[in-house]
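Support case: user asked for a sample of complex input and structure output to validate their parser. Sending the pair below.
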Amino acid sequence: MGKEFELIRRITEKFSLNSFVHVGPGDDAAVLDIEGTSIAIATDMMVENVHFKTNWLTPIELGQRIVAQNFADIVAMSATPIAITACVSAPSNTEPTWFEALAVGMQAECDLVGASVVGGDLSTSKEITISVTALGLLSNSPVVRSGAGPDQVVALAGTLGYSAAGLACLQFGHSAPKKFVENFRVPKPPYHAGMASGTSATAMIDISDGLISDALHIASQSQVEIHLDAAAIAPEPELESLASALSQEALSWILNGGEEHSLLATFEAGRSLPEGFRPIGHTRAGTPGVYMGGILQEPNGFTHF
Amino acid sequence: MGKEFELIRRITEKFSLNSFVHVGPGDDAAVLDIEGTSIAIATDMMVENVHFKTNWLTPIELGQRIVAQNFADIVAMSATPIAITACVSAPSNTEPTWFEALAVGMQAECDLVGASVVGGDLSTSKEITISVTALGLLSNSPVVRSGAGPDQVVALAGTLGYSAAGLACLQFGHSAPKKFVENFRVPKPPYHAGMASGTSATAMIDISDGLISDALHIASQSQVEIHLDAAAIAPEPELESLASALSQEALSWILNGGEEHSLLATFEAGRSLPEGFRPIGHTRAGTPGVYMGGILQEPNGFTHF
């Protein structure tokens, strides 16, 4: 994990930011202030045999999934997704109907928030790659990762461990339980919770690398300790029984499962949480780190490089 | 060519456009009107062994090239590029210095117009793919492909045939003449001519598929004939001698060479052209088509599908 973050640091060091950039690289999305209009922009890609296998998802699901991943980043700034562009490469013998189904999936996910697909590019390639860039509109200051203070409530909107559980099922050749497999195929980011939290959340992040890893981003960038309440994030019985059937650890799915696309946010204590959020811990002054039961947790998510 | 355009048509049919969309898919860039701010957005990808071979370009040149391709689309709407995002996938054994050099190239191209790299995503893959999305700011109505009228001047900013000539050199194992090879490696879109034409050009397009193919886009979308002046686009002697040395046709590079990223635009007759543009033909009322010496020209550019 550290190696990939180090690579990203070395890359972003090369960039210089102009006066339009309000939030640069290093958050869920960048934010541009353009003539008084505040625009969030995020980009996320999927590569065949790295992020998915073609027999795991239909092209419609692929289209939904890549857009959901991007919109999760947009709503994690509390912005409302308005438009996407997509670059798609696929083997030259790919049927037109495959591209059409992918487009239907993209549009279906856009429809959940009223966004549009406004442009794209096609190429051939040996393996499928899909890159999407999403734009969002902000009507308030963006909620960044660095805004949490001490003694605040840590809250979650959405599920934990479902996507990792679904991926494990597929890797073991099962297509059930549907609840988990479908969450892996098409994540269900809590769009409305994110969009509604702009005036109350102090910090927010999309859980894409894993709960611990992403909580650590808030802890590090906000310079606070994050204490997770073990009871509040305990695996539900269905997740436990699936894990033991597959000889896996349900708690590991909860803590380190990636691509869940739930939202983790902080709020001032005593404040009522926006609909969809539930408390799962608190922040404290101290050395940045993520704790559960008083024990420092190490991130253990997926890494590419 | 027709097959790929037909595929794009079938894909874009699936999309529905919201009220932010001022120009949708089908032009060089889409244009969003967001709270009174007019934003152009374009996206373009490069795939190893489809668009380039790694021994043809340094990673710095790759970074410059993919950004130049995108900015050519932005200035073809007469917008000023302000920001990009980039998705990059590469084999897992790729050195960090390769990514750093790619970033340096992207930043270098951004510096030509004052734009910034604001976000990105990394993945592993078997072959390198690079997708960039560029945003531009419009201070006037976008110059679209459909705005040309009859009896207008057809004008060109930039070179013709250089990129195709450079590609041919590389394909034959030569790295000279530098003038052409460097134009293939890093195209030189006439950014300032494009940005300066917003109040005078009636239609404009980035020449990415080839002069005939892209002129035909203006002709079809504007419902005019385009007549090219053969003398005005005749190959220069250096291009002619290179072509005969390689047993190629210089005129074919001029008419059908892709990835040149010059700008083709139309202007009302009698109007002085913005700096960088020179007249190369005229429009006429009639059946959409592109003519040279009175003969209808057929597009013959590259096609993926």
